[in-house]
Design goal:
This protein is α/β, with parallel strands linked by helices and 221 residues long. The protein contains eight helices and seven strands.
């Protein structure tokens, strides 16, 4: 399958199943205009995250890696009425853009954005007894995947769903000699999930507007 075809299928999915959403479109536009990297989840992937939140009846969601808040908005919209997304972002400019996007999408009251290095913010969350979270979405710097997963376990409960993005890397995840830090981070995520007895996981390969990649998805026993 060509990249052109898989992108066209993504467009078909959105056109067939989604209603027009000016706030989400505006968030992506703002991210582009403000110079943020074009690494947001696709609309179809965002909807998947929102459905996972709804399916689990999540009230507390943790997101590691906000960027411009596009995925945050999707998950915030899937929350129970009294739910909250805690999202962690290291870049002040990204955080500023994200806050504007949250305001425009009318989800600011459901989002707690923490600015600073994620590993520091995670330490604070543990000290605050902020957990357990019902769903944890990891989409930050890939070399730290095992560190984020380790902290996620401390902020989880039995039944918590953990989703780790960008773990297929155009198939390069199979290459143990890649030398690419992002690929090594993806492999480390698989090693962590496969080696952690409290986790039961799988992975989904994805194609479409974001190329060839995928999610690792696990549940805490």
């Amino acid at each position: 399958m060509s990249a052109r075809t898989s992108t066209a299928v993504d467009d078909y999915i959105v056109a067939s199943l989604f209603e027009a959403d000016p706030a989400l479109d505006a968030a992506l536009a703002a991210n582009r205009e403000q110079g943020l990297p074009a690494i947001d989840v696709s609309p179809a992937q965002g909807k998947l995250l929102s459905l996972l939140v709804r399916i689990g009846g999540a009230k507390k969601v943790l997101e590691i890696g906000t960027l411009g808040g596009y995925s945050t908005i999707w998950m915030a919209r899937g929350l129970a009425a009294d739910g909250k997304v805690v999202t962690l972002e290291v870049d002040p400019h990204h955080a500023e853009v994200a806050r504007s996007n949250f305001e425009r999408a009318a989800v600011s009251d459901k989002v707690d954005l923490r600015l600073g290095p994620a590993l520091q913010s995670l330490t604070v969350l543990v000290s605050e007894n902020a957990g357990p979270f019902d769903l944890i979405f990891i989409d930050a710097d890939k070399p730290n995947n095992p560190n984020y997963l380790s902290w996620a376990m401390r902020l989880a409960r039995s039944g918590t769903v953990i989703v780790c993005d960008n773990v297929i890397r155009d198939g390069a995840v199979m290459n143990k000699d890649s030398g690419d830090a992002n690929v090594e981070g993806a492999r480390a995520a698989f090693s962590f999930i496969g080696g952690e007895k409290r986790l039961d996981g799988t992975a989904i390969q994805t194609v479409g507007a974001k190329g060839y990649d995928g999610f690792a998805i696990a549940i805490v026993d």
